[in-house]
Amino acid sequence: MVNRRLGYATLQKSQSNVASDATFRSQASLTRQRQMLVIGFGRDHCPENAYRTAYQVGAEIARRDAILLTGGLGGVMESASRGAKESGGFVIGIVPQDNKTKANAFCDAVIATGMGFARDFITAYSADAIIVVGGGAGTMIEIAAAYQKKIPIVSVKGTGGVADQLVGSYLDDRKIEQILGEDEPENAVDAALKSIEVGR
Predict the structure, then answer these.
(1) Is 8 a residue whose pLDDT tops 80?
(2) Is 153 helix (H, G, I), strand (E, B) or coil?
(3) Strand partners, 132
(4) Beta strands, E only, the chain
(5) Which of 119, 121, 122, 127 could be a cystine partner for 37, CB 3.0 to 4.6 Å?
(6) Strand partners, 94
(7) Which helix (H) or strand (E) element contains residue 157?
(8) Are the C-beta atoms of 159 and 50 separated by less than 8 Å?
(9) Distance CA 169, CA 49 (A)
(10) Which DSSP string do the residues of 78-92 spell out, in sequence order?
(11) For the chain, what is the mean pLDDT?
């Protein structure tokens, strides 16, 4: 009899802890700053238009009090980081090297993964939403990783590369997550934030 009572008390406590954990997670999701990943062309092949657009995207993310995540290097990553930093935002660079000094100068915090292209999964999984500015094969890795996890993806139209190629499409016939498209940086950020809020 004593053991049964102890077992029941333990079960009640366990259920109470589960409810408490769920409440905590719910409250945390309401208070945690949104983490927006900007991806696209690297330094070696970033057109001026994409560079300017990335700067505007980064600035808009900062103005909406979200945290900017990037792959931490040059091109779109550097420009978005600069835009966010100069608009008072917080920037995290997740670099593929094992050396924090490889990050661009506009990162407030650097995560040195030492994982090469495998770091693209870390950047994607850390994001609440992703904004694409141009981009090539490396950008596709991040998009594919996010797609599998149903993370919202918004392309800025007219920036070239995969951003333009994938607008309005799904990556496969499962139609997990449609890649949205917007003409202006501010609209892309708005669409990304709205996608986060509607049940994702």
Answers:
(1) no
(2) strand
(3) 39, 155
(4) 35-40, 67-70, 91-95, 109-112, 129-133, 153-156, 180-182
(5) 127
(6) 111
(7) none
(8) yes
(9) 23
(10) HHHHHHHHHTT--EE
(11) 90
Residue of 53, 63, 73 lying closest to 190 (CA atoms) = 63
What per-residue confidence (pLDDT) applies to 200?
46
Which residue do the tokens 């004593």 mark?
2
Query: How far, in Å, CA of 146 to CA of 143, rounded?
Result: 5
The answer to whether 112 and 20 are in contact (CB under 8 A) is no
At 23, is the secondary structure helix, strand, or coil? helix
**Does an H or E element contain 140, and which?**
helix 137-148
What pLDDT is recorded for position 197?
Answer: 86
- Report how far residue 96's alpha carbon sits from residue 140's, in angstroms, rounded to the nearest whole number: 16
Residues with Cβ < 8 Å from 61, sequence gap 6 or more?
36, 38, 67, 68, 80, 83, 84, 89, 131, 189
25-45 tens-digit pLDDT: 555 555 889 999 999 999 999
Report d(CA 4, CA 187) in Å as an integer.
Answer: 60
Of the ranges 25-29, 67-71, 75-79, 100-104, which one carries the lowest mean pLDDT score? 25-29
Average pLDDT over residues 52-59: 98
| Max CA separation in the chain (angstroms) | 77
